[in-house]
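Q: I have two molecules that I believe assemble together. Could you output structure tokens for the complex as a whole instead of separate predictions?
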Amino acid sequence: MAVLVVGSIALDSLETPFGKRDDVPGGSATFFSTAASFFAPVQLVGVVGEDFPQAHVEFLQGRGVDLAGLTRAPGKTFRWKGRYGFDLNEAHTLDTQLNVFGEFRPELPPAFRNPDLLFLGNIHPELQGLVLDQVEKRPRLVGMDTMNFWISGSRKALLETLARVDMLFINDAEARQLAGEHNVFKAARAILSMGPSRLVIKRGEYGALLFDREHVFAAPAYPLEDVFDPTGAGDSFAGGFMGYLARKGDLTPNTLRQACVAGTTIASFCVEKFSLDRFRELTDAEIRQRLASFKTLTHFDEIPPAV
Amino acid sequence: MAVLVVGSIALDSLETPFGKRDDVPGGSATFFSTAASFFAPVQLVGVVGEDFPQAHVEFLQGRGVDLAGLTRAPGKTFRWKGRYGFDLNEAHTLDTQLNVFGEFRPELPPAFRNPDLLFLGNIHPELQGLVLDQVEKRPRLVGMDTMNFWISGSRKALLETLARVDMLFINDAEARQLAGEHNVFKAARAILSMGPSRLVIKRGEYGALLFDREHVFAAPAYPLEDVFDPTGAGDSFAGGFMGYLARKGDLTPNTLRQACVAGTTIASFCVEKFSLDRFRELTDAEIRQRLASFKTLTHFDEIPPAV
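A: Yes, here they are, computed for all two components at once.
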């Protein structure tokens, strides 16, 4: 199976307590596609400006990402500027310049219109809907991301798109906001009644929760002593998750749980260096090792009923 | 095996978004002993004032807690008044009246001086040390709790006591404060270099991390849709944890992991009603059922190296 992602491609300028970087590659489609590429073939739809360095395009090509849906438009690339304090769970946006991304109307090339798995990155929910309109055959799974901005500002469009997808990836504050429920498990139940049959609630350093209508699976975050830059962790999680599904080729509850672990694992590499830097050097052996250590992190022998 | 706990016994007045209670039983020794009593025999050392209702004493007796170390002193019982907002992870202390607890000098009755397992509840670290002085034979495991107040105000005494115990139970903000490290895994490593060979970092609704010098075990919190009163959750966790160790009768790494799950499970009941109310009606069958569902919550099939 392959995964199609539609989302943003950005140049990020970041400040964390550990350093500063200007105009490094970012955006949901960038992180997602790179992360997913460690497990499966990926197709990307997105837009960059005239100033987007060819080296970043070549990096994605080098990861095997099919860029037939990448448009280079007149103007400048989407730019995001953000800062993190020691609490790396929260980004403070300093500046956003949409540039060519402001006019983005995703168009799937003919070869991309029958994806096995589709991920709608965090863009306007109407554009996410526009992507769904172009798909010729129902994908086996459609995942989507969204954010506080659309939850408060474009709620109607968001709910319409949400009703058309299978799975939502969202962070815990956004889940609470979307559901209007403080308790995360009540919020999850409310969201699952809005359409998707599956939900991942991302909780940063606390891991992720995977819900279907009957079960919850809790995956801790991988224990990291050094987190440099949390940018892209959520998209890398989703990329690892859906890339793993594509690799396994099935959507059983057990595979979804493994995908959650795979997503967490890939995200844990993402945050170890700035931007895509950790992915540039990441090996399959490192991924395998970290995946294996997840079992040690959570395993306990079942407590016998007699106790 | 049996567990000995030394700690506070209080009358709490609480406000949460879900209600208000005045002068309900609280305190570290109260929650710990009740929680541990679901798994093993418990001995308690603590002090109450003349106003402490006999009904609360009888409740503990009814749970089989050995109260030979309970003193009734002239004066009023320790009182704590607190409020929680919707973020139930954080308590806002409104008032503390130490009363007879201010003069508390723990004294172990002769029959309590050879405990298998000892828990030093959150009291002045010098008093915790005083308890250790009275123990005739090294217990198989000594656990302790502490809080921000002692970490900042009595650091030297705290470090001295910490060097004498086997295991610290602490919440994540306190772990960061004690270690002077923002990253929780670095903080854990620093704390394990201060003496204890094991450490639990409690993270409220995000669960708990159990460390020894080589491994981490991550236990999620039990998924609860209704949390009424988080007071006592930490002490109930420790009580469930050490009670389980006493019941199993060994301290293997696997038993410690199971104890972490048992502690999380017992704490999850504690917060479902005010004060000890959920424990008043809790059955072994309910505990067994929730323990069993923990496996479902965290289990995934190991990802084969070929993937």
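A: One point stands out. Chain B has a mean pLDDT of 96.
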